[in-house]
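Would you mind writing out the residues of a protein together with its fold in token form for me to study?
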Amino acid sequence: MAEGVAGPAGISTSYAMCVRYDGVEVDESYCDALTRPEPTHEFCTGRDCQPRWETSRWSECSRTCGEGSQYRTVRCWKMLAPGFDSSVYDDLCEAAGLARPMERKACKNKACGPQWELSEWSECSARCGAAGTMKREVRCSVEAPLCDESRRPSSERECTGPPCDRRWTASEWGPCSGSCGEGRMSRFIACRNLEGKVISSSQCDPATKPLAVHPCGDKNCPAHWLEQEWEQCDASCGRGVKTRLVLCVGLENGLYREYPEKRCETSPKPEEQAVCFRRPCSTWFTTSWSQCSKTCGAGVRLREVKCYQGEALAQGCDLAAKPEARQMCQLQPCPTEAPEDACEDKATANCVLVLKVKLCSHWYYRKACCWSCRLKSS
């Protein structure tokens, strides 16, 4: 990263420093001396010096295989007066119309080779309070024998159904659609928790589900077939079966009555099952998380997220349900001060001038002239 302290009045000098992948400055022996940029000199006087963006070198890729990210630090610098070159607020560079350099870019290394890929866990198979199982698909990113079977993640785990605070709720009845025998009134039935939030119907007891469709048309209506609404398709994708309840019912003095099925056999019973098809079976799969991009402080960790339809990569997965591919990671705080034994003045910093113009309070010069600043304050 180009950093610097001013030399003679009116000359702003920038020089290179060696920066680790997470933006922390390290000893120059870690960088290739042959690629070190030459120092730059700008001739200007005080307020006439334009602000400028300075960037560190790009970090290493956050992943050693597959797709990752590279990072660098970006700071605004300006010569505030002859002999005083300092980092300043970013607003100064932005106000000067300078486009801020990128701080992150994608990087790609060789393919990661065999690794286990996982789909999301299914809903717990149990209703409230009971024990059940959750399942997920586990697949190898290449041919199955190439993945380490001893490290294969589990595809099933035990779970307990949600708390028993689920209940059916029903809206008001809608208008009657026709005459006796054909007329229907409908209402909306939902499974809700105690907070009133609508949840999956599978979490309420189907045996106690209220009728969503009701006969109507006359105060007295003889027995006839009444079809309830179709339940959800039993497959989350691809081909499945949907079912509905078909009852033999009527009205007596305006009151709902159910009858044995033989009372309705004069007309054919409507279908109780039908084939259904939901979007093609495309599923999101994820690899395990990479290591954090930093060794201290806040960084990011990454994983691959792929959509498969069967064995082939596909585009048909639900984007709203796409798992996160990037996640913040917080490690122990980074040290703010250099260790005692590492405190020394940089050869490239004009520490005599730093002391003269009292710049030790500035974080950069306090570090660049650590030894001189510490002697001054002791």
In short: Confidence is low (pLDDT under 50) at residues 1-12.
